[in-house]
Amino acid sequence: MLTTAVACGLIVGNSIPPVAFAVGETAQATFIGDKDPEGYFCPDETVQAGQISDFAFWKLNFEAELKYQWYRNGAPIRNETDERYVVSNGDLGKELNVAVTVYSSTADGMKKVLTVDGSDRLVKPCAVKASGDDEPVLSSGRSRVGDTIKLWYYSDREASVDYSWIRVSDGVVISKEPSLTLSVREYGEEIQLLAVFTKPGAWDVTKTFWPFTVNSGDLKALARPKISGELKVGSTVKIVDGKYNAPSVWMSEIQWFRDGQKIPNANERTYKLNASDAGKSMYATMNLNAEAYSGVNSWVESTDPVYGGNLEASEAPRVTGKMSWNSMLTATTGTWKIKPTSYSYQWYRNGKAIKNAIKSTYRSSPDDVGKKITVRVIAKRKGFGTGQAASNQVTVSGTTLSAKSKPKVTGTFRQNQTLKVSNGTWNAKPSSYSYSWYRNGKKISGATKSSYKLSPKDVGKKISVRVVAKRSGFKSGSFETKKTNVAPVLLKVSKKPKVSGSAKFGSTLKVSNGLWSKTPTSYSYSWYRNGKKISGANKKTYKLTSADVGKKISVRVVAKRKGYDNGQYATAAKKISAASFNKISKPTISGKAAYGKTLTANPGKSTPKATSYSYQWYRDGSPIKGATKKKYKAKYADVYSDLTVKVTSKRSGYKSSSRTSSAVWIWDEYDYDYDYGGSSSGKEPNRCYLPGGQSYYYC
Question: Which domain of life is it from (predicted)?
């Protein structure tokens, strides 16, 4: 940088020629400013030589040039000869400084005049990023009255911040809170934030943000205005203020509407309802205004239409349709002075309301025959009172009764049994019934009730009954049941047949005949196993087989006599159990009782003789795994142990029975073959010596 300067001032350009001077004459080159470098001595920040680089702080009387050299811990930093220096992470914990040298242009070239050294500055982190992309940012937005302004970003959230919100016009600090809510007092003012960021072990960072102007706020209705007063013709209604985000709100440009149509000259907060408003919905529009806020349009509406009195009919409703039973009648709505928006209905019979008859149509019932039928129409419209109008009267005629579900005879068509006939159901509910019973198509004298007891005369004949239904206003209807043949008397059991005998395989069961209402002349029998007939088992006795074991056995006895229907009785089923062996002798073990030798189990004798056997060998009372055959080869584990065998005898129809043999002592093969010395000591505790006489065990 080359600049022309004179004493006590700075002249830019070459308008004054150089002045000769003697090198070392300090009066000709004097620095009067701050010699320390400026900026935040933190990594990624740019610092500069400060006032030393500004000729305004030098007293010179010659053309001068400034040259720079930056130092780290007193050593010059290579190639760092500009008035600015970008601090790096490598500078952390070190001290930086800058030396500025003044050179003068002479006839012999540039001559060094004076060097000024700044103070050393320690490099450490900043409380926040002081410049660049990560520096703190102020969110001022539209800066409207009612808005809240705050720092929305700064890089190090651990830093503490001291806030000063300053009104630029008078320099007054209006708040020291982290955020500032703009009030009406700040409207039109310029506001500036001065924030000081501090953090232990870091340089304080002071940021002065660009000032912003406070604009008018947006007026908002937190709760809209309402219409108060009675919504009735003749009453006065009024617009009542809602709640707003600003104080002292006033209304302007008010306009009232009736069902969306503007009402002329209705421009005040109050409005008197008249006949034209009846049944109509009311609403009003207005502008809302407040100081330092922009105006906003708003509106209010009535919750209900204006009440205009009860609806009136100009022409009564009428009942139309076929005036006979089970026909559909229809009610017209009639004509009304003010058109209703909905209708409801109530039908009446001789002046009394018919339950659930509340539609515009009604199907006549049997109860309506000969009665006066009317309908009342109820008219409704929002904003009006309910109106009612009654129709003309009509009379309903009847028809012939006919059966919908036929009368039915219940009971047994057998001599001495009583039959009963149901009334069935009819197209209209009858008020009374009459009955006539017939034998082979001829009326039975005196049989005029709903029940009839069959006599001996009826046996072999066909019996039917005619039911006649009656109801006032209807022609009587009739129905005759199906003709059914009558059977003779049934033989009935008076003492039940009983099964005797043991319910075990091999036993013979016998059934008694029991006693009957009339002594039978013969019987037949059928034996059953689990409910299924046993082929060929048709005698009074039955011998139980193996197929019956675990099954249930019963017998059906049929009693017969001429002139009577057969009677029958099934006995209760008995569960058949298996038989037991009468006697089973104890099994024995044969073979050489020594290690490696094969032993054989010999089943005991049984009565009757078993047809198969199963085996389980035991060592000292515990079952030997896998030893379930007739023969068993002694293992080394069996030596000096008791071996026994349990033999289970089996035979079809019999319960399996098990017996266990006497124990045999298993010797080591050597002891067994060494034939001497085996004896008992005969003293307590008794010692039994093994063959050979040297080893023993307590016995």
Answer: Bacteria
Retrieve residue 594's tokens. Answer: 């020594």
**Residue type for position 557:** V
- The backbone torsions φ and ψ at residue 309, rounded to the nearest 5 degrees and listed phi first, read 100, 180
Q: How far apart are CA 151 and CA 157, in angstroms?
A: 11
Q: Is 178 left (phi over 0), alpha (psi -120 to 50) or beta?
A: alpha
Residue owning tokens 């009402």: 263
Low-confidence ranges of the chain (pLDDT < 50): 1-27, 674-685, 687, 689, 691-694
Give the C-alpha separation, 287 to 298, whole Å. Answer: 6
Categorise residue 589: left if φ over 0, alpha if ψ from -120 to 50, beta otherwise: beta
| Total Cβ atoms within 10 A of residue 281 | 18
Cα atoms found within 13 Å of the Cα of residue 657, Cβ hemisphere only = 24
| DSSP-derived pairing of the beta strands 217-218 and 293-301 | parallel
Bridge pairing between strands 109-117 and 394-395: unpaired
In a 3-state reduction of DSSP, which class is residue 184?
helix
User: Phi then psi for 163, rounded to 5 degrees?
Assistant: -105, 140
Collapsing DSSP states into helix, strand and coil, what is residue 395?
Answer: strand
- Cα dihedral 328, 329, 330, 334, rounded to 10, equals 180
- Residue 284's pLDDT is 94
Residue 76 burial (CB count, 10 A): 12
